[in-house]
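The following record pairs a protein chain with its ligand, carboxymethyl coenzyme *A.
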Amino acid sequence: MPRDTLSITDNRTGKTYEVPITHDTIRATDLRQIKVNPADFGMVSYDPAFNNTASCISRVTYIDGDAGILRYRGYPIEELAEKSTYLETAYLLLHGELPTEAQLKDWTYHVTHHTFIHESIKKFLDGFHYDAHPMGMLISTIAALSTFYDDAKDIFNAESRKKQTFRLIGKMPTLAAFTYRHNLGMPFVYPDNDLSYPGNFLNMLFKTSESKYRPNPVLERALDVLFILHADHEQNCSANTIRGVGSSHVDPYSATAAAIAALYGPLHGGANEEVVHMLNEIGSVAKVPDFIKRVKAGETRLMGFGHRVYKNYDPRARIIKKIAYDVFDLMGKSPLLEIALECERIALEDDYFVKRKLYPNVDFYTGLIYQSMGFPMTMFPVLFAIPRTSGWIAQWEEMLLDSEQKIARPRQIYLGHDTRSYIPMEART
Ligand code: CMC
């Protein structure tokens, strides 16, 4: 008679243990009963980088990496990219359901009316070098918001969480645009509440002397779709960071700053910047085969390829490739496009990549789109951080309200020295 349990025999002792299986998963703490001596700590599981460990139960985002499926709250990413807007998708991620017309209006109103930042934040920005990386400025200014909103510490108060959510989603584009203007040495442009979320972002980035900025609808929609595609991606490095840092019950601004820092790394949100560096380094279509040879020799990586979870074409990359052509039609083709297409063509046929199931990921084409839109490379990860904020807050809130979650505190396998006595300086060799 089949049972939902796993029998484990410890060959050191000959004892057999039966542990329950729920959702195809065993609980690591059920292994603790496995001991040789009663005084032993008990068996633990070793899983560096969480390759096969679920750290939470989540209802936000579903990925089937083998099938190339991504869904937010059950809705396929392809449908959301085609029919939704970023603000509606953010509502969905945070509330679990699509909003009614009235709910969307109210949500949009509140996010839009939290786009302004305290004037003192501008003084922090002024303190940065003219060429400071915008991600460094974004991490710092988001962290600084915690000093302005003391009520944010009240994390178990639903009203307070709601307020911080409006502020975080509302202010993120403003801070992002201000970092860009700081780099250019141009005056900051204040939010225009008549415009859409991406339209207002474009306004704060690119407005010069015109009395009213009118965003180009193609760019506005392209940015909105890119925001939808980047809104969440279940337990990735930065989501895991906001959950881990948030598990200490710190305020959401400090936890979000930590998540942005995680995103900054070249293996995560920094990869889109690395892709453009790489394509520039390759230099021409003719040099792609040589570069691929170097990748296969382990000298370098093909940035924008591979994914911990997707072992198939990243569904976001497919949508992004299409947006790329909409933007190129308007703004002109990136000179790096042909090199990127050749890398993709060779890699998709080459045994090295096929065997390892390395496909283009979300970052492979985004850099080219952003470049064509006029963004400097340093802004690329910032463009990832803006929409990911809704996913981070959804993950953070789910963690806070989960009665099984506690402060994140992994175990280690200690292989260092056993106890030894302090050696006086004169006795050291
Ligand atoms: N180019 C060449 N070889 C690769 C690549 C790549 N981009 N990615 C993985 N491999 C190889 C790797 O060398 C290893 O080969 P072997 O088995 O012979 O040692 C095998 O594929 C498995 O790689 P891994 O490093 O164990 O895989 P991982 O799941 O730890 O890493 C990854 C995932 C995304 C960090 C990695 O694929 C990578 O470094 N890609 C390039 C950076 C990138 O594009 N990052 C953006 C990720 S998507 C956006 C996001 O979610 O942040």
